[in-house]
Write a structure and sequence with these properties.
The chain is α+β, with helices and mostly antiparallel strands. The protein has one domain: SH3 type barrels (Roll), CATH 2.30.30. 16% of the residues lie in helices and 40% in strands. It has two helices and five strands; from the N terminus they run H-E-E-H-E-E-E. A five-stranded antiparallel beta sheet has the order 4-3-2-1-5, with helices on one face. The longest helix is centred in the N-terminal third of the chain and has 10 residues. The two termini are 21 Å apart.
């Protein structure tokens, strides 16, 4: 079982391949990160600018490298994590 803090910490350190079940039941394998070097026009201060009181620790928002866009997934739906780079 994975937890929010563990996954977010790994996303900040590198690129992960996260396998999870989408809300519609489909499985998704997503290469993603929270490292600014992979994000177009994104400063680190914007990525780390989070109001601790508004964090929903059941959902993680990460930058999907394959889609070049932000995507979210539920922590409870994560099946596997593999470190790609980091």
């Amino acid at each position: 079982m994975f937890n929010y803090d563990e996954i977010v910490g790994r996303l900040r350190d590198g690129v992960l391949q996260v396998t999870f079940d989408k809300v519609n039941g489909e499985q998704r394998i997503m290469p993603c990160t929270l490292q600014t070097e992979y994000m177009p026009d994104m400063s680190e201060s914007k990525v780390n600018q989070v109001d601790e009181f508004s964090v929903n620790k059941s959902v993680i928002r990460a930058f999907a490298i394959d889609k070049q866009s932000w995507r979210s997934f539920r922590v409870d739906n994560v099946k596997a994590i593999e470190i790609i780079n980091g």
